[in-house]
Specification:
Elements lengths: L3 E2 L6 E2 L4 E4 L4 E2 L3 E4 L2 E4 L3 E6 L2 E6 L11 E9 L3 E5 L6 E4 H4 L19 E9 L5 E4 L6 E2 L4 E4 L5 H5 L4 H10 L2 E4 L4 E5 L3 H16 L6 H19 L1
Parallel strand pairs: 4-8, 11-13
Antiparallel strand pairs: 1-3, 2-7, 3-6, 5-6, 7-8, 9-10, 9-12, 10-11, 12-13, 12-14, 15-17, 16-17
Helix pairs in contact: 3-4, 3-5, 4-5
Length: about 240
Amino acid sequence: MATNILVKEKEVVIPGQILAEGMEYLPGQGAFRENDKLISKGIGVVNISGRFVKIIPLSGRYVPKEGDTVIGIVKDMTYSSWFVDIEFVNEAVLSLKEASSDFIERGADLNDYFSIGDYIIAKILKVTKQKAVDITMKGPGLRKITEGRIISVSPIKVPRIIGKQGSMISVIKDATGCFIVVGQNGRIQIRGKSIENEMLAEEAIKKVEAEARTEGLTEIITKFLKERSKNDIQKA
């Protein structure tokens, strides 16, 4: 049977909508196969990558996956662990063992490491079937955040903000000179040489979030940043 793709890239689809007929295309995130048909599980935007047809939801909370980098807020602690808000229904657990590459003795004052209200960059270590989440601070770039600003975006817009192979976020970093960490849970750290640079980076990120479905968005953001930089130079 011949394969027939019935939707276009970035088309908005609804639950139960047939995406493709035949066996050439494979179901990705948000899609499933029924006999020879690929069908959408929910409302979302079509993404066709090679043979995979994915549906990116238009809205929704962050769902943690092993290996994700997230930005969390320490909410509570016990004598042996911290509880961290990662924008998920359950708080993540950071144990003494995973809090540092250095050995932390039992009975140590945990406030010497992380206190309630601290922002941290962590990695998802494990997600159980019961949706309990363990995180780790062991790894390159994982640390407590002490500088810059934290902003929040919709988690489902994170791939667009990062761009293919990091293209979009690289444009924003290069134009603003800011150090930027994008958490998969929708929190983003921006640290620049000036408040103005940080605010420009934030404005660009929010523009990407708002216009995520626009064609040629990388070029639009590049032009936007160039014009803003030019205006700043003229004002100076």
